[in-house]
Structures are given as structure tokens and as C-alpha cells.
Amino acid sequence: MNQCFSRVDPRCLNPVVITLDSLTKVFPAPGGGDPVVALGGIDLHLDAGRIHGIVGRSGAGKSTLIRCLTGLEKPTSGRVEVGGTDIAALDGSALRAARRNIGMVFQHANLLDSRTAAQNIAHPLEIAGVPRAERERRVAELVELVGLTGREHNHPAQLSGGQIQRVGIARGLAAEPKVLLCDEPTSALDGGTTRQILGLLKDLRERLGITIVIITHEMGVVREVCDTVTLLEDGRISQTGDLLDVAGDPHGPLSGELIPLPPAPTGIDAVLVNCDYGQTGRFRTTEDLIRLAEAHGAHASIVAGIIETINGRQVGRVQLALRNHDDKPISPEGLAAFLTELDAEGVVAKEVTA
């Protein structure tokens, strides 16, 4: 085992990708009746060395997808490839060997209370029959990698929630997998600890070049660390793509959840316009929108809005109140010209009607 830990070293990048090709899983209905389609033809390609979020409501198929990815569930049809190996076609020792390419991190780490942090990290290596000296070397590397130095001899009862999750992450990395699959890794953590764990995952991706898949219902997690995102609905992909593209697409089902517009105050005597900006064009801040309104003879004020920085770029959703400089609502001609220019600049804008 010879894991490279140097930061952003191209030699550390794993060539692995995950490919789901027409993945279908159908369960027989309990007591007869129509079968239940848990996954209905999933086609998905995840690039190596990226952090990919998979989101969806309860019953969307996320758990079944995880089980198919890890070989715990056999698909009814389709392929599940990890690093070019079709997991769905394997059984027995071949499947166990392939699973070593997939590390798992769970919402609750489920550590063995009788073991120390280091012993919990070593547990999968013991099961794999790794010699003791090599286990100890690997555990020492992982303890340092996940920031547990000085805590490796503590038992779970002596660790905080964030430290317990760090042990879980280190355990998931023990066999040097090509993919780290995280199932709701921060749902049981407070806000500050969540940010620390997400920062650790980003650091691991940069240092190891590992592919990380995060199953989550928390849009804040997706905004914070994911490069790409997929929305599952009723066992099918409803939307997928680069995070910036998905967040900046106001017509897509995920945009409103990733960047939700807060409720605006009522009773405003002005023309209200919703604007989505930042994905394309030169309009990258709310100041750009306000300056353009001024150019069309209107004073613009923000009555509701949210701005997020995604992959280094501001993406915003704001509601503007437009008035003439005599404090009257903007004229229809001025509004039409304003909306036309916004459209030309890649800003999706729409007048709010009662």
C-alpha cells in the first residue's frame, strides 16, 4: 500500500470514474400487486477526483442507489462500474475485492466502543488480513491525515461528534479506496462541526485525488463542497450537472432549493422583478443590476435576495423594487427595455405579478 499524500500532485489522481448505465432496480410488492420501481434506468457518469452530491427526498431511491454502488444489492438490469469494473456482475471473493475500492462513511460512525480510535481505523485492515506492521503504519498515516493526532488512543466515549466522524472517515480510507461514498455524513453534527468535516473532505480530495460521492438532503453541504450534483426523484434523475450550472438555472428543479429566495415584504408600491444572475454574462453582482436600472431611468432597491459563492463565482437571486426617480413605479417602456437588456446579458428576469 503506497498512498501519495502530496497536495495537488497529478500523480495522485486516480483515473477512476463511476458509470451507471441504465441502472434499474425493481422490488416485488409485498403481498402481491404491482412491483416497486426503486430505480428506473439511471444513466450517470461521475468524473474522477471530484466531489459529487446526490440529493432527493425520502423515497427518491438514494438508499437503493448506495446499495447498488457497493454491491449489496443486485440491479434488476444495467451496469454499475467503478474504475471499469462492473460491480453488479461480481460475486464472492471478486465482489469483496472490488468493494475495497469503495470506502464508506455513514451518518453515524457506529464505532466499536471497546476499541480506541486507532483500533477502529485498523478494523477493516484486520479483516482484510493486512500484516500488523503495515496496519500500524497505515493507521498512523490516517490519524495524521484526518486531524486526530493525540486522540488515537481515546475510546469513542472520550471523543466529540466531529472526532468520531473523523475516525469514521479514516476507517473509510483505510484500504486506500478509489471512491469515498458518504451517506449523510454531517446530518448528526452541529453547524460548526459540519463545516470542519466538509473542509476535511475537500482537503482529502485535493491531497489524495479521491472521488467523493455525498448522499445528502442538506443543500448547504452541496453548496459548500460539491463540484457536481444529481437530483433523484421517484427513482429517476430529474437534473444533473456542474453545480454552478445547476444553481444558475432558474428553470431547473434544484435552483430554488440551492439558492432559495426569501419571502419579500408585502404592500410595496413599485414594480417587482425577480432576477437570477451570475451563471453567465457580465452581470455578477447586485450592483450590476442596480446600475442597469439606473441607466433605464429607474431607482432599484433590493427587497429580498440571497447571494451564494459557488466554485468561486457569485450566484444570486434577488427581487428588485423598481421606481422612477419621482418615486413612482417604473414606466412600462422602461421596464420592457430593462428586461430586454437583462435577457441579453444572461440574467433571467421576470416581473412579479399578483
TrEMBL record:
<dbReference type="GO" id="GO:0005524">
    <property type="term" value="F:ATP binding"/>
</dbReference>
<protein>
    <submittedName>
        <fullName>Methionine ABC transporter ATP-binding protein</fullName>
    </submittedName>
</protein>
<dbReference type="GO" id="GO:0006865">
    <property type="term" value="P:amino acid transport"/>
</dbReference>
<keyword id="KW-1278">Translocase</keyword>
<dbReference type="InterPro" id="IPR003593">
    <property type="entry name" value="AAA+_ATPase"/>
</dbReference>
<keyword id="KW-0067">ATP-binding</keyword>
<dbReference type="GO" id="GO:0016887">
    <property type="term" value="F:ATP hydrolysis activity"/>
</dbReference>
<keyword id="KW-0813">Transport</keyword>
<dbReference type="Pfam" id="PF00005">
    <property type="entry name" value="ABC_tran"/>
</dbReference>
<feature type="domain" description="ABC transporter">
    <location>
        <begin position="18"/>
        <end position="259"/>
    </location>
</feature>
<keyword id="KW-1003">Cell membrane</keyword>
<keyword id="KW-0472">Membrane</keyword>
<keyword id="KW-0029">Amino-acid transport</keyword>
<dbReference type="InterPro" id="IPR027417">
    <property type="entry name" value="P-loop_NTPase"/>
</dbReference>
<dbReference type="InterPro" id="IPR003439">
    <property type="entry name" value="ABC_transporter-like_ATP-bd"/>
</dbReference>
<keyword id="KW-0547">Nucleotide-binding</keyword>
<dbReference type="InterPro" id="IPR050086">
    <property type="entry name" value="MetN_ABC_transporter-like"/>
</dbReference>
<dbReference type="InterPro" id="IPR041701">
    <property type="entry name" value="MetN_ABC"/>
</dbReference>
<dbReference type="InterPro" id="IPR017871">
    <property type="entry name" value="ABC_transporter-like_CS"/>
</dbReference>
